[in-house]
Design a protein that fits this description.
Blueprint (H helix, E strand, L loop, with lengths): L1 H13 L4 H16 L4 E9 L2 E2 L4 E6 L2 E7 L5 E6 L7 E6 L6 E6 L6 E5 L14 H7 L1 H5 L9 H69 L6 H61 L4 H104 L4 H35 L3
Parallel strand pairs: 1-8
Antiparallel strand pairs: 1-2, 1-5, 3-4, 3-6, 6-7
Helix pairs in contact: 1-2, 1-5, 1-7, 5-7, 7-8
Amino acid sequence: MKKNLILFAILAASINLNAATSSTLLEEIIFKTTNLANVKFSVNVTYSGNPLAGASVNVLQEGKSIASAITDIKGTVTINIANYNGKLVSITTSLMGYQNNTMKGTALSNGKSINISLTKGTGSAAAAESKVESIYSKSEEKVNKIEKKTEHHITDTEKANEKTEKLNQQAKKTEDDVVSANEKTEAIRKKAEEAKKKAEQERENANNIRNEAAKISTDAEKEISNTSNDRAKTAEERARLTREREKNLLLLEEEQAILKAEEEAKKAKKEQKKAEKEAKDETEKIEEEVKEKEEEAKKEQKEAEKEEKEAKERAKKQEAEKKEAEKNQKEAEKDQKEAEKEAKVAEKEAKVAEKEKEADEKYRAELEKLKSSQSKIDDKRSKIDKDQKKLDKKIKKGKMDAEKAKGEQAKINDKHSKLDKSQSKIDKKVKKIKKKFNK
């Protein structure tokens, strides 16, 4: 930036034209020396911390639109501007049902992420108006008054700058390759971590399913002789606690959303003030630098030669970083394959556990069918036992004829025998069911 500004001052000082022509040429020089080529950045649009899809994002410079896009389902949009001249822009965001938001005095750079928060309602909630454009224009007259004593240094400085620019382009390409490799490596590592997490979750689900299935089988066997009153009370209490937890979570979410929206509004206001101050400081710096004469130009030439040397070293270093990044990428791809393999094994285990659960549910259903028959046998057996006690009491007191007592006892024995046969059938069915389900 400093090198371009000095070059700009030298060129401006060497032009011997009238004020109007100088002003036009200065504007062209400012554009050429500050052109940053393509710039790619992202905009995140939210409301109360939640992403807003379908929001219109419009980028304006000097009142003209230079780019526009619509946010996706995550409330994010990536914008690429070709031949961006480095000047500040305004970003206007709008969506039906929400107030428009205009962020002025914003400087763009590659990879920059801009957060914008909308509020519900209609109208405009534009940020504080920036004075950056007027600050830049005020310095133009001061630039035109530079003395014309440094012309003979232009050629050497330009040559050094050209060499440095070529090296910087080479270094930038290498840096882009490193960034691309690192991004791929990071994506692969994230995918591997997700696969590992999935595998762990699948194993946990499988264990839960097995535990639940075992509990179902045990409970089913116990329920043949137990009532369901306790389970009903437990289910009712569990439902009540669930409703209470859901209510508390909703209240917590609303409170956190409000706090987050307020924090984002404060942050946006702070960033706008910072951008305005930075623009003002940068302009004051320009005004100070353009006052430097021949000695400053010589110093700039030496710095350009130094930058050329540093650019060579930087290109060499970035080439090494590129190789390291490619190595990391290969290692990450290997980790990803292992994680995916583990995830498949865990998924298979979960399916097996699910089948075991289904089998236990069928086993429980089979046992449920026998509960009614068992209950009837138990009731009949209880009645027979009562008859037996009465008969034993009469025999003990000698109030019944022996032959008649034998007949009564034979009837009772016959009833027990019939129940024994019924009980034997149920026991065989239970045994058959257990054998069927490997219990």
